[in-house]
């Protein structure tokens, strides 16, 4: 049985971890979350990517984000070669 991962829409701790559904190959990378992330521009985020999802080069990297929509943000990481 595959492991299950849960992300709560209304977490106790803020800012909360959000599940990523997509990351673009761009500079800066655009990250899409599975539901509204509630992040603010200027927040420093770390990407924690399981080995099964790909783009492992970005795993553990941190960057400043610029929010552009409720479920997307740009992160100051160059993923063009990933």
Provide a brief overview of the structure:
With 82 residues, this protein is mainly beta.
Q: Would you write up a description of this structure?
A:
The chain is mainly beta and 82 residues long. Helix content is 0%, strand content 29%. It contains no helices and 5 strands. The chain has strands at 20-23, 29-33, 44-46, 62-69, 72-75. A 5-stranded antiparallel sheet has the order 1-2-5-4-3, with no helix packed on it. The radius of gyration is 13 Å and the shape is globular.
Mean pLDDT: 87
Distance between the termini: 30 Å
How many beta-strand runs? 5
How many helices? The count is 0
Main structural class:
mainly beta
**H/E element string?**
EEEEE
> What overall geometry do the principal axes of the alpha carbons give?
globular
What is the alpha-carbon Rg in Å? 13 Å
The share of residues in helices is under 10%
| Major sheet description | 5 strands, antiparallel
Note poorly predicted spans: none
Work out the strand percent.
Answer: 25-35%
Order of strands, widest sheet: 1-2-5-4-3
């Amino acid at each position: 049985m595959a492991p299950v991962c849960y992300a709560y829409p209304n977490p106790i701790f803020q800012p909360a971890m959000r599940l990523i559904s997509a990351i673009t190959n761009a500079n800066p990378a655009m990250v899409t979350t599975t539901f509204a992330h509630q992040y603010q521009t200027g927040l420093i985020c770390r990407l924690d990517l399981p080995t099964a999802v790909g783009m492992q080069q970005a795993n553990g990297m941190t960057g400043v984000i610029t929010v552009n929509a409720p479920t997307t943000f740009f992160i100051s990481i160059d993923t063009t070669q990933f």
